[in-house]
């Protein structure tokens, strides 16, 4: 293998990793949801916490700005779960396209 081949492969690898990092950042921002007076991240952790509180109709949680916000638990959980599922489906589709370009 000559130097030009190694250099070309390294550049391609770097471009691919940069594209993956950009894609991750792009979809992380889509997981933020303004709901019920707070800003929430639709993450598996937050959805799990809301599921734990499912017997309560109203509870106080700390939002992304570290503010305590009183929310309707089921409504927030439904919104975050819908957002998470739709964003992850879109992310997976774009990620697969990126991997196929390799």
Number of helices: 3
Estimated share of beta-strand residues: 15-25%
Shape: elongated
Helix content: 55-70%
Q: Report the C-alpha radius of gyration, rounded.
A: 19 Å
Strand order of the largest sheet: 1-2
Oligomeric assembly:
single chain
Largest sheet: 2 strands, antiparallel
On the 0-100 scale, what is the average pLDDT?
89
Low-confidence stretches: none
What does this structure look like?
The chain is an alpha+beta fold and 102 residues long. The chain has one domain (3-101). The chain contains three helices and four strands. A two-stranded antiparallel sheet has the order 1-2. A hairpin with a 5-residue loop joins β3 (58-62) and β4. α1 runs antiparallel to α3 and α2 packs antiparallel against α3 (73-101).
Secondary-structure map:
Blueprint lengths: L2 H28 L1 E4 L2 E4 L2 H9 L5 E5 L5 E5 H29 L1
Antiparallel strand pairs: 1-2, 3-4
Helix pairs in contact: 1-3, 2-3
Keywords:
single chain; 102 residues; alpha+beta; two-stranded antiparallel ribbon; 3 helices; elongated
Summarize the structure.
The protein contains 3 helices and 4 strands; from the N terminus they run αββαββα. It is α+β, with helices and mostly antiparallel strands. It has one domain.
